Amino acid sequence: xxxxxxxxxxxxxxxxxxxxxxxxxxxDAYAARRALGNTALIKEDVxxxxxxxxxxxxxxxxxxAVRALRKSPAFALTATLSLALGIGANTxxxxxxxxxxxxxxxxxxxxxxVQLWENKPAQGYFRNVVNGVNFLEWREHTHSFEDMAAVSVxxxxxxxxxxxxxxxxxxxxxxxxxxxxxxxxxxxxxTAEDGRPGHGDVAILSFGLWQARFGGDRAVLGRKITLNxxxxxxxxxxxRGFALPQSTPDIWMPLFIDRxxxxxxxxxxxxxxxxxxxxxxxxxxxxxxxxxxxLSRERPDYDAGWSAEVAPMLQDATxxxxxxxxxxxxxxxxxxxxxxxxxxxxxxMRSSGRSREIAVRAALGAxxxxxxxxxxxxxxxxxxxxxxxxxxxxxxxxxxxxAIIPAQNRIPRMEAIHIDSSVLLxxxxxxxxxxxxxxxxxxxxxxQVHPHQVLRQGAIRASKNSLRQGLVVAEIxxxxxxxxxxxxxxxxxxxxxxxxxxxxxxxxxxxRMFASPAKYLQPRGRATYFARVLDEIRxxxxxxxxxxxxxxxxxxxxxxxxxxxxxxGPPTPSVSxxxxxxxxxxxxxxxxxxxxxxxxxxxxxxxxDSTSVIMVNQEFVRRFLPDRDAVGQKxxxxxxxxxxxxxxxxxxxxxxxxxxxxxxxxxTIFIDNLQSPMFFxxxxxxxxxxxxxxxxxxxxxxxxxxxxxxITHVKTMEQVFSDSVAQPRLQLALLGIxxxxxxxxxxxxxxxxxxxxxxxxxxxxxxxMALGARPGDVRRLVLREGLVLxxxxxxxxxxGALGLTxxxxxxxxxxxxxxxxxxxxxxxxxxxxxLLATLIPARRxxxxxxxxxxxxx
Amino acid sequence: xxxxxxxxGREKVELKIELLQGTLDMLxxxxxxxxxxxxxxxxxxxxxxxxxxxxxxxxxxYPALHRLERxxxxxxxxxxxxxxxxxxxxxxxxxxxxxxxxxxxKWKKLAGAIARVMWPGEASEA
Lengths: 857, 126
Known about the structure:
The structure holds 2 protein chains of 2 kinds. Chain A is α+β, with helices and mostly antiparallel strands. Chain A has 28 helices and 24 strands. In chain A, the strands form 2 sheets. In chain A, strands 1, 2, 3, 4, 5, 6, 7, 8, 9, 10, 11, 12 and 13 form a 13-stranded mixed beta sheet that branches. Chain A has a 6-stranded mixed beta barrel with strand order 16-17-22-19-21-20. In chain A, α4 crosses α15 (about 370-405), α13 (about 320-355) runs antiparallel to α18 (about 465-495) and α13 (about 320-355) packs parallel to α24 (about 725-760). The model of chain A has no long low-confidence stretch (mean pLDDT about 85). Chain B has a 3-stranded antiparallel beta sheet. Chain B is built from 4 helices and 3 strands. Chain B is globular, with a radius of gyration of 19 Å. At the A-B interface, α1 and α3 of A face α2 and α3 of B.
């Protein structure tokens, strides 16, 4: 700043010289000075011609602002903290919103990537996975897509490298990597030959697996590994960070789809596709739908009533978190608005204390713009300090939130969530905007000051109380909206976890295993294998009962199939009714504590060779067999062996929630895993004590049957339950925190205004007391003022809450957004906060000594 | 009871002939054609030559000097000349001379045009 100091000095000298020269011509020095005019103003005007002035001034103003703020640390701290909370909350949520919803997917031209689904609107099936043959037909008979690829989940046991390792694998059709526009960092991607029967199995590793299990060795290409008991050759390694939004697979296997009977029936594929350039989603969808319509005509048995839909990949992947995130974003925005109102109020109060200083500056020739600039600089300094504190808070906040999200209920694209330059930019922009919002109101107000008036009277008259009160009313209203929202979430969450799931959660251990197709390809061998595993587990000390299931409840997994009463003949997939299908072993319902309502459980009588047996739940009976005895009825189920052998219903169990706690139980058919064994099974084990105590010996028992069996997801059922409500719990926690912050900020605001207005009325109160008002009367006077504000805020807030909480509707469980008790509680909370915040100023006012006050004037 | 209206706003200022925008610049340039001068001298020169018709407001003189210097029409230097101490002297640069010629011809045109409107009968000087 050297050049600047020299120039200032020169200017000083120049003007002084002028005065001296003028004094020689004028009668006295005073006249000379009058002839020259206001030197400070001249200097300002001269400085204006120097250029860079604004930057210079900003710097000067900022330094002045810092000095001024340091003189009133209580104000500076309150204001900075209020804003830091608001900015921090917004930055934290934006970090997540940006990474999850806004950033483009890390693929080539990601806006052209879509997911294709089948749907059957008549039965309310949307976003349904796709049939293999339909996928082939779509690929051939549409012209809007550059290409499409099918994906199927493929649990993989990797053996031969020490302990068996369970991998998250996916099987993909050869076009998969080309559709995404990705290629391996090492080696090649799949060719059309890969995966065809007769060709050796190949696999592509993820970067993480390559690093963790193969030491990042480049010689890994061509190496033979054992996957699910059969050999496969590693042909490629994907680059670091290559992952789909919903999943981070460890390994990719080729998926070969043909028109064999295997692929005719059933729907199990996820389909990704790339739109041709300049083709819109709508055009592609109508193209796909006409292909689907053609298929329902050609294959009515499988496809009648089925259509298709095209969804942008990013929106599709994030559809479940979009609304909750936006609600939280809005909530954080409200917190920030309250913080702004608060700080604006603090600034207003401070400015009436500073009116003298400002009047003096105005009288000395500071223009209105200059004053405004100075005051805004102060707001900006506050906002920037708050921005720094808020970013730090956001950093820790995001870390804390990510830490409590369970791995099984991950948010899509969670790995990408971190504070980056765009987040910092957002925080900075937010600070500038807030500085203008909360700074401009008081600044405009103050800069209207008429200097001579203020200097004569000593202070601005308390004319702008209405502005202050308006701000407080707004704060109260906004915090009521947030508290109402948080209250609704709380009520909904409480109802959710109070739902009877239809099974017990205490003392149950669960785990997953996948029987290698290479070893257990034959159903009979597989059935024996699972029976032996369960027997071995039941012999472990501390185990009461054990059974297998596909799928364990509350993990958003289910499967379904068509069926019909045996008397109606073989079912047709497109016409016959649908029910959920779960494959369970004997002992499963006993382990889970699901009560039997009629007939019997699966037991030792039911073997691989005996007649097929079936159990159903009560909802199934209600829907399909309301007027007869369910036990003894025969069903044809479009599922495995049962497709051909009608099964006999031997028992009815109580209803249980399957996908999640929200969804009411669906009609369900249970098939015996020992008669129709799957490769994949989840085991539920009832323990006599702490289930985690037996976890080790249970795994040892499974390894006694097959040492190569990988075991994953070892958890208690309580954990499964708790993880399944992790998302609503997180929403509740965050909204609760925001609601509490809002309440706290509003309390500070109310306190400030009540205290200030009581202080301004000291004289009036003194006179009242001198005339006989008792301390109680004075307290009531102040309290009443606070409560009037509170009531006004409540009225405005209720209107706002009724309007805004409607967006929560789809997030709430058995709770209406206008739930009266919740709204009433929120109102009581807000009025309580108002009362508390007014209490201290009221008591202080009632202790005024009338003599001292009146003498003071 | 009636109240006296309170007087607000600025005191009214004495009427002066306000210099046209840009005219002060031309006068400063013209004054410096006689040679280098300091700020006070320039002001006094204009005032005296116009027999006090044009009061150069000092408040606008110094900003104007700095502005002209920034445009490169003037240069300045601390020098000891007729006074016994160092003063800041301004002098015309080559660019300033050109600018002066431009302003002068512009002014002549303007003055002539106004004169033809105001006194149509009289023969124009130019």
